[in-house]
Amino acid sequence: MDQLKFVVLDEEDLEVASAHLQDAVVRVSDILWRPTDKRVVVALNRFDWEGAQRDNPEFRRRRAALRFERVLTCKCQRVDPANKDGVLNLLAVEFSETEAPSGVILLEFSGGATMRLEVECLEAELADLGSSWTAAHCPAHADDGGLPKSKRA
According to a count of CB atoms within 10 Å of the terminal CB, is the N or C end of the chain lower? Predict the structure, then answer.
């Protein structure tokens, strides 16, 4: 699997990043909010959905970083910053424009946890950081419709 690295400057870019990040695993201690730099960095272990959908599926994960620039505020709900070993499962990343070009980025995690970033504009980067490793299984969701793991999207 090739390493991902791309810049996110609009909602379409973010939709692509969100698809690659579905079911990424994030440790609470790997979320860094730098208010003086207006930056949020999230280190995560993303699942390789492309590899899982091949004829001979491979379930793999890879360390990656998701960086947001021009962040004005960072608010969390159902995320305990004191629980540094807490683990979050990322479901989606979305952007809602408020007063162009500013808006809100919402990171949604399983169990109802969220991160809400108010941004001057949408400016982010997703980059893989190293080699991949074998994952024990393919993430499953209640709405998979009973499809075999190799056919899930």
Answer: C
Under-50 pLDDT residues of the chain: 145-153
Q: What is the DSSP string of 85-136?
A: T-EEEEEEEEEEESSTT-EEEEEEEGGG-EEEEEESS--EEEEEEEEEEE-S
The tokens for 117 are: 């970033």
Candidates 146, 92, 100; CA nearest to 122 is 100
pLDDT tens profile 75-91: 999 998 889 999 999 99
Q: How many CB atoms lie within 10 A of CB 81?
A: 11
Specify whether the CB–CB gap between 95 and 11 falls below 8 A: yes
- What pTM did the predictor assign? 0.88
